[in-house]
Structure formats: structure tokens, C-alpha cells
Amino acid sequence: MAVIEVKHLNKKFRVKEKEKGLKGSIKAIFKPKYKTKKAVNNISFEVEKGEVIAFIGPNGAGKSTTIKMLTGILYPDSGKINILGYDPTKDRKKLSYEISSVIGQKEQLWLHLTPYDNFKFIGTMYDIPNSVIEKKIKEYIDVFDLKDFINTPVRGLSLGQRIRCEIVAALINDPKILFLDEPTIGLDPVVKENIRTLIKRLNKEFKTTIFLTSHDISDIEKLCKRVIVVNDGTIVMDTTMDELKYHFMNKKIIEVKMSEEVNLDDVDGITILKDKGYNLKLEVDTTKKNIKDVLNLLNQDNIIDINISNIPLEDIISSIYKKEKK
Amino acid sequence: MRKYLYIFKYTFINELSYFSKVVFRVISYFLHIFVFYCVWDYVYDGTNKIGGFTINQMMWYLIIAELFMMGVSRVARERPIEEIKSGSIAYIMTKPYSYIGYIFTTYLAEGLIRLMIMIPISIIFGFIFVGPLETFQIKYSLIMIISFILAYSINGLIQILISLFAFFMEDAGPLHWLYNKLLLIFGVFFPIDMMPGVLQSILKYTPAYVITYGPTKLIVNFNLVDATYILMAQVIYLAIVLVLVNLVYRRGVKKLNVNGG
User: Fold this and answer.
1) For residue A313, which of A49, A157, A225, B242 sits 20 to 30 Å off, Cα-Cα?
2) Does residue B99 contact residue B167 with C-beta atoms inside 8 Å?
3) What domain count does chain B have?
4) pLDDT (tens digit, 9 = 90+) per residue, B76-109?
5) Which of the listed residues A245, A266, A301 is the one where a domain comes to its end?
6) pTM of this prediction?
């Protein structure tokens, strides 16, 4: 069952333009100029219940604009959105009981209140009876390991603890869909891992549909089974994580250390990424050249060390971005 | 309603952390009053009444009107502008409560904490420097309190209304500056009765009449005719401002441009 249905969604922005210098600034006061920018251009997709989906793209691709339209913050110029049977522009308030969002850079918790008071406050905003809120908080303290700082005012928490509380706060209303916009931005690797575990757990235990945007490829790789890539306001790829990887699996990176200098030229299927005489880094398209042929070209007796790996997902995704830009 | 009581309660708890801020407000309040005390003392110089006010009434007028201005929370004036500019209004909009209701309740709760501290201090200050207010009529205090609450509410809603213009213009700050000066000059420093006739009749339609001048005048020099006029004007003002705030908010939200993350 689709919980998010988006059809032919469009959104334009009017952006003010100003010529350079003082003259330009004065001119802009009397005769302001505007440029129209297509932020979202005819986007359509569906998300099924319980999916963890990555909605990714370079900066300015239209990710956040799309999320804002899905949550009813921005009004689309045209197109249809159906979230759990609601039209977000008309039923924003009703929809707000069913969904939640965590925006990495924005604080939603009150700094001078403890996480406990914050959770209680948020629960009340969702018309949840006191006894139920208390029960939920107890459950979350155990599941998400909050007991050490549940009574510390939020301003005294570390960034990692605060983000953890932000995410837990977004769960108080038992959202059916959770929108996470850059949830791990600015966190150290250990805390990032904690947050990912938390997201995985809430998807598993509470069957929450997760709609995630992130520039951190590890977030996407570790959490999501499906990826939608947007660029310049349009969807350029909608595929499963496995397919995405498989599609690029035929490309391998070979790093070798040789005892003698090698003179290798670009041949069909082999791209030399780095050549420092004794050290080489090659990209091999295995549909055109198999690994054995490459090793023969190198003279196996002279190989001191070798490393063969897949292309990192990060490179795959940035190559998709670049391809679409061209 | 339970939601807004909670917003009120938690704002109150949150504001307690800023207790020291109130101390600085009290100091600046005393400075203002002291300067005007000296000015009016010099101006009266043996004169019995100016604009229908004795010096005792004038000083109490100043103490109460200034108390109102100092007790006003800045939340309605600052937060919507900040939140519209930064785009964070968007995330509050996805919560199941009214944004206007949220700001207004916060404004009331912050105001309550300030006034709770400042009202007793200003009364003690007035008693020491000016002596008791000779024309105070305690039997009408309920009307005075209602008028004061109405004034406080209208002021908050007008400030929210002005702040909401940030949806349409780059900076709504100068509008607040103008509005604040209107209240300060025609409602605090000089009661409307002191103005020339034509200006007086114009000023009776401005927010200064229903917010600072009206309720303060009722406390300083109560009469039933004035009270009826002032309360009626306040109710009309409240209704108009409520409609306008909702109208502008609805229009503004549709215009909201939140770019990027």
C-alpha cells in the first residue's frame, strides 16, 4: 500500500536579482528584478508502507522543496500529493498527527527544558493523554538508552545526545511516516552510527516509513533499500540500492605496487586513474576487459602488492550527479 | 485549549531561566522614570494641573504606562520575523497547533513573568517617590484589570500582525519601530489629553488610545464614561486585529518561500 503518492509535482520560486555594486543596489530598490527558478519539475513517485527511502541529490536539486511540499509547508504550483490519504496543502493539521519530521540543522526542542519535559510538551500538543505520554517516555528511555540525560536541560546535552532526543521527540505521536532531512549532519562517526542504529530500530520495531535525505553516503548505504536521485528538480534515477550497486559492480578499482616501472597506455576497458611509475591506480570495466587480462598486462611477477575493490558508492552517486549535469 | 495551557506553562518554566534579564529591565525602568520625574517636576513647578493631570496623577500615569511598555514580551515582535526569515516557521507549521496561537500564548506567558516581578516593584517605587495615587478608585479595579489585559492582548496581536509582514517584505523591523514610537510618545510620555484638539481626535483612533493611554487613564483617573468608551474601542480593536492577523497569516503562508535545507 502506497503511503506517499506524488504525481507531476511542480514548484517555481521567484528569486530577486541584483546587479553588482552600489548602482545595482540602488537600482534594485526602485526597479527590483526577479528570476524564476524551477525548483521541482514534474516529479512523480510512490513510497510503500514501511519503506526506508533515500531521496538524494546535490545542493539545490529540489530535495528539501519536495519534502516541504510533502509535509504541507510549501504549496505546489501544480501536481498532486497524497500522503496517507490526505492532501497536505488542504489537511496540513490533520496530517501533522500522522507524520513527523527531523531537520538536521533546526532545533525543535526547547533548550531550557529537559528532554522529559520536552517529550511531555510535544505529547500534549498531539492531544495524547498524560498517562499514555508517561508510558511512551518510559519505553523510549529504555529502547533508545536516554536514561543518563533524560533530566538534563537540552542546552547541556552534546550534539549527538540532542539529535537523539530530536528524533525520539519526533516519535511521540507514533508517526506513520518520518521525514529525516540530513539527520546526521555535523556528527562524529560514532554518534552517526548510533543515530543510524536508532533509525533502523524504529523502522523495525515501529514499522515507520522513513523518508531520508542526506549527503552522507553511509547513511544511505546502511539504511535505505531504495534510492531516488533528483537533480535540477527532476528525478534522474529511482532504483533499489542493490540494483544501483549491481549496475556499477562491473567497474573495479585496481591499485598495484610494482617492483619495476610499468608503461601502460589507456586501452579500451582500462582507465588509468593514477600513474606514479611503481604505483598504479586503474579503473577496469569488466564487461570489456577481465581482471586476468589486466594482470597479464602488468606482468604478474613484478607485482608486490595489489588491491581490487568496487567503486565506492560515493563515487557512483557523484558520477550520476555529474552525468545528469552534462 | 489544553495545548495552549501547556505552551503557557512551559514558556513560563523556560522563562525562569532568564530571570536575570528581568533585573536589567527593572534598572532601565527606574532610569526612565527618574528622568521623566525630573522633567515633569520642572515643568509643573507649582502648576496645579496640566492637561487635566495633577503632578501626582502624571507621575503615576508614567509609572503605569512605562510598566506596560517594559513588561511587554518581545516575542511577538521578534520571533515571527526571525522564524519567517530563517524559514524555521515551516517546521512549526507542521505541528498540530496554530502558529498564531503559539506565539500569542508565549507572549502572554513571558509577559506574566515580567509583570509579576515588575508590578510590585513599580508600586513600591511609586509609593516612595510620588506617594499614594490620590484618585485611585479601588472599587473599579476589576474593570481596570480587564482593560489592562485587553490592552496587553491587542498589543501582542498588533505586534504579531506587523511581524507577519515579513512574509511580504524584506524587513518588517522599521514598522515595529514606528509602532513602538507611536505608543511611547502619545501613550506613555505625553497622555493624549495634552495634545492639541485636532490631534487628540485623530489619536483616539490609534492603538495608543486602546493600549497605553486608555487603560492607564482608567487607573489614574477613573470615570464610567471614559471606561465605556475605552472598553468598547478595545473590543472593536481586538476583533479587527484578530481578523487581520488571520488574513495576513493565511496569505503569507501561501507566499512562503523556504529555499534550501
Assistant:
1) A49
2) no
3) 1
4) 999 999 888 887 787 788 888 889 999 999 999 8
5) A245
6) 0.77
3-state secondary structure of B229: helix
User: Residues near B59 by Cβ (< 8 Å), separated by ≥ 6?
Assistant: B37, B40, B126, B129, B130
Whether the per-residue pLDDT at B257 is higher than 70: the answer is no
Q: If you write DSSP's letter for every residue of B133-166 in order, what string do you get?
A: -TT--GGGHHHHHHHHHHHHHHHHHHHHHHHHGG
Disruptive mutation site among B91, B94, B258 for chain A (greatest number of A CBs within 10 Å) = B94
pLDDT of residue A325: 53
Q: What are the CA-CA distances from residue B113 to residues A180, A233, B13, B213 (Å)?
A: 36, 48, 10, 23
Q: Which residues, 6 or more positions from A199, have their beta carbon under 8 angstroms from its beta carbon?
A: A52, A167, A180, A183, A210, A212, A223
CB-CB under 8 Å, B17 with A96:
no
- pLDDT tens digit string along A182-217? 888 877 788 788 888 888 888 888 889 999 988 888
Dihedral angle of Cα A82, A87, A88, A91, to the nearest 10 degrees: -140
Question: How far apart, in Å, are the Cα atoms of A305 and each of A144, A258, A278, A293?
Answer: 44, 7, 11, 17
CA distance A10 to A8: 6
Q: For residue A111, list chain B residues with Cβ-Cβ distance below 8 A.
A: 14
Residues of A with Cβ-Cβ distance to B95 under 8 angstroms: 96, 125
Average pLDDT over residues B240-247: 96
Cell output for A215? 549527503
Question: What is the extent of the structural domain holding B123?
Answer: 2-255
Domain boundary among A199, A222, A245: A245
Residue A16 DSSP one-character state: E
Question: Residues in chain B, how many?
Answer: 261
Mutation site, A64, A91, A151, A214, interface B, largest B CB count within 10 A: A64
CA B84, chain centre distance (Å): 23
Q: What is the ipTM of this complex?
A: 0.72
Q: Does residue B261 lie within any of the structural domains? A: no
> Within an 8 Å CB–CB cutoff, is residue B90 touching chain A?
yes
Residue B6 near chain A (CB below 8 Å)? yes
Residue A324: is its pLDDT beyond 80? no
Is A126 part of a structural domain of the chain?
no
- What contacts A203, CB < 8 A, 6 or more positions away? A50, A52, A209, A210
Query: Is residue A157 a part of any domain in this protein?
Result: no
